[in-house]
Automatic annotation (TrEMBL):
It comes from Zingiber officinale. This is Nucleobase-ascorbate transporter 11. One of its GO terms (cellular component) is membrane. GO terms for molecular function: transmembrane transporter activity. Its main location: membrane. It comes from the Eukaryota. The keyword Transmembrane helix applies.
Length: 438
């Protein structure tokens, strides 16, 4: 538990530093300048790399319990592809609720398998860590039990019905250069992801593209909310979720009131400890199977940004193709080094911790760790390679797909067309100091 708290405190500090950087980037107006250099040829491989980064985690974890993972993947594909046009009560339920409906079905199936003793092995207990298992026979089944059973977590027995989250619940955040530097770059990558999401969303809801000021305001707000997430010790920042673009496309609904209601429900559920405990009963293989779909969706949504460019251009083909390949192979080289220090990353990012003993060696240990870790992150490599190539290789605006909001000639919008981007009347006075970003 002490090691966990140490990890969370350092992670909290890194998130706060990265979020402060993102807030300054947005509300200072610097993002308005940077956005002129970030075009679809940069956004597409960067967002795609976010999804591709975890290919080594998804099915390798799901494959440990194929009787759960395969049915889930097949159900999601059947619902989203083969039954997508089938309507019930006037709604395409199988398309809109493909993921939650599939999860509930397979989750229930996994529960009955667990309750029926399908994963009971003589002398084995799923709550005993693999490192403490002595018998070879039990160790053989430990992986299956961990990935298939719905009662691996003891959260349901130990979680309180009501729990109020509070700042610094793991202790005061600690700040270290190496982790903070990594999170600053990660926040920059998240901002690039958000830029593509803002533009794609504006097209889906038939709005004028957001101006550079409005985009900067959005990035600044993401930074502010991520600071709160860091202080509360969530372990992650709060940024635009790319998969929501797919949700908008399916539901054709972009109501602020619906989002506010959803946010209120999530806040309410966060006080009920048993809700988190129930989610903790989802088998690891089932969760990994869902990621096989959602991360693949991120890859597709990222590459779809290329529709705003001349996709047949050899310039763009070479830049995007080379960026995607190099963003996979360079991190693979760095991740082969074994860690020689205490890891500070979540379990699904443990491969990147191997960079603590990577090939970069200078007189600064903190700089070595930061650079080795950054070069082991696929999305970071993709961003820098695509950014440099797209802004140095000659190409016309049409060929590069220069964003509409980056072109000064298209920024003369009437105020009425930008009204949907306005802040709510009660919130607007709080941001009068940031008028220069819309």
């Amino acid at each position: 538990m002490q090691k966990f708290k140490h990890i969370m405190r350092e992670l909290q500090g890194a998130i706060v530093v990265g979020s402060v950087f993102q807030t300054v980037l947005g509300y200072s107006g610097l993002m308005s300048l940077l956005i002129r250099l970030i075009n679809p040829v940069v956004v597409a491989p960067t967002v795609a790399a976010v999804g591709l980064a975890y290919f080594s985690f998804a099915f390798p974890q799901a494959g440990n319990c194929v009787e759960i993972s395969i049915p889930l993947i097949l159900l999601i594909l059947i619902f989203t592809l083969y039954l997508r046009r089938l309507s019930l009560f006037g709604n395409r339920l199988f398309l809109i609720y493909a993921v939650p409906l599939s999860v509930v079905i397979v989750w229930t199936y996994a529960f009955f398998l667990t309750a029926g003793g399908a994963y009971n092995y003589k002398g084995c207990n799923s709550n005993v860590p693999s490192s403490n298992i002595l018998t070879d026979g039990c160790r053989k089944h430990a992986t299956i039990m961990k990935h298939c059973r719905t009662d691996v977590s003891s959260a349901w027995r130990t979680a309180a019905w009501v729990r109020v989250p509070y700042p610094s619940q793991w202790g005061s955040p600690t700040f270290h250069f190496k982790t903070s530097f990594i999170m600053v770059i990660a926040s920059l990558v998240a901002s690039v992801d958000s830029i593509g999401s803002y533009h794609a969303t504006s097209l889906l809801v038939n709005l004028k593209p957001p101006t550079p000021g409005i985009v900067s305001r959005g990035i600044g707000m993401e930074g502010l909310t991520s600071i709160l997430a860091g202080l509360w010790g969530t372990g992650t920042g709060s940024v635009t979720l790319t998969q929501n673009i797919h949700t908008l496309d399916i539901t054709r609904m972009a109501s602020r009131k619906a989002l506010q209601l959803g946010a209120a429900l999530l806040i309410l559920f966060s006080f009920v400890g048993k809700v988190g405990a129930l989610l903790a009963s989802i088998p690891l293989a089932l969760a990994a199977s869902v990621l096989c779909f959602t991360w693949a969706l991120i890859v597709a949504l990222g590459l779809s940004t290329l529709q705003y460019t001349q996709t047949r251009s050899s310039r763009n083909i070479i830049i995007v193709g080379f960026t995607l390949f190099i963003s996979l192979t360079i991190p693979a080289y760095f991740q082969q080094y074994e860690p020689n220090s205490i890891l500070i990353l979540p379990s699904y990012l443990l491969p990147y911790g191997a960079a603590s003993s990577g090939p970069v060696h200078t007189n600064s240990e903190g700089f070595n760790f930061a650079l080795n870790a950054l070069l082991s992150l696929n999305m970071v490599v993709a961003l820098f390679v695509a950014f440099i190539l797209d802004n140095t290789v000659p190409g016309s605006k049409q060929e590069r797909g220069v964003y509409i909001w980056s072109d000064r000639s298209t920024l003369d919008f009437d105020s009425a067309s930008l009204e949907p981007y306005s802040l709510p009347a009660k919130v607007r006075p709080l941001f009068r100091w940031a008028r220069w970003v819309g």
